[in-house]
Amino acid sequence: MEDFQEGELLLGQYQILSKLGEGRFGKVYKVRVLKGRNKGKTLAMKVAKDLEFIPYLWKEVQTLILFNHPHIVSMISYLYKKEKRELYVLYEYMDMGNLREYVSKKGKLEEKEAIKILSHVARGLEFLHSRGYIHGDVKPENVFGKRVLNSILWKIGDFGLMRIRGESGVIDIKGTVGYIAPEVFHGELHRSSDVFSLGCLFYYMLTGEELFSGEERLIKNRQCVYSLEGGFSDKAARLMELMLQREHRNRFKTAKELLNYMVKERLI
Ligand SMILES: Nc1ncnc2c1ncn2[C@@H]1O[C@H](COP(=O)(O)OP(=O)(O)O)[C@@H](O)[C@H]1O
Ligand SMILES: [Mg+2]
Prior knowledge:
By secondary structure, the chain is an alpha+beta fold.
């Protein structure tokens, strides 16, 4: 599908302001709403890149419609054009962009800020996990920031790979190399698989680098081979180690357990 152009009017009410990004399934635009209930608002609009991705986007719609949480990107509405087989999904606009852009610009983060972001994302995941969902694709591109007063609120987004705990069937798409829990390569997926990905995310924030990198990153990720160097504080190193256990049973079982630990260790 061709990109929409700046200034273009979609569905008679959404004016394209710019393109925000492109993920695995969709293209995302910044739009201004010219009519209706959300008139005057700036929103983000995702359109499936291709017909084959509509089921993923549809799944995102069906799940997001049930959620309302300060650390989960909200869906505002959606539109399905049956005759053209086009699906448009509108979300709150996250004005700080995604976490990868933020870290690329700013460089590696101070421990205090990394821990704050970690706790925000963990709160969003805690909400999902308590309802039996597994996000399945936690990574810097899927974490979004929004300016609120003098601070930044971070939220988890992109629910195209979300699964329900214990759901059977083959896992076709497995998240993103560099952020995948080892058991996922064997077709197993747990809530603690999200915790592992979150551990990779924490490492990325503190170092500005990937935990699994280089030509061999797929092999390293699958075999869970890494070294935690980077001059972290003892508490941060311990926390990271617990999230990045190869054996999923040795990790925090859910984001809730992780948050409890962080509170106990006075990290938050
Ligand atoms: N609500 C939003 N606000 C601002 N930017 C967004 C928003 N949603 C997505 N983006 C941008 O678009 C990119 C792709 O969005 P994402 O939801 O991850 O799509 P996909 O399902 O295709 O991976 C993100 O990495 C981000 O840069
Ligand atoms: Mg994405």
